[in-house]
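Course assignment 3, question 2. Fill in each field.
Student: A.L.
Task: Predict the tertiary structure for the chain below.
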Amino acid sequence: MTIAYWMDCSIFDTNPSFYEDCYGKCSSTRKQKVNAYHFDKDKYLSVGVSTLFRYGIWKQYGLTKIPKIQYSKYQKPILCIPNVYFNCSHSGKIAVCVFSDAEVGVDTEFVNPNKK
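Answer field:
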């Protein structure tokens, strides 16, 4: 089974306390990554992906702690849990995280309606 979660990260613009709550739940590694971004939009997307990952890992598998993550030779993140796969993406204002019992990938892309 494969399930995807998504969020419009512009919600953080209108609800700063929600952003602070989500940011506060990020790992120290994720916080360092978020803090390295210059623009709020990029910070929001990074926190959004992290939030979706934490929510999905809890909702789908009942895990309250983030399991260990390793990386393939192509730098794809892999959970150290058998038969649990995930992938995340973000673009524009949208963050997506997908979980599956088989290898899975997801990609999101902002399409500029002003371009041909």
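Instructor remarks: Helices lie at 11-14, 16-24, 28-36, 40-61. The CA atoms of residues 8 and 94 lie 5 Å apart.
Grade: pending
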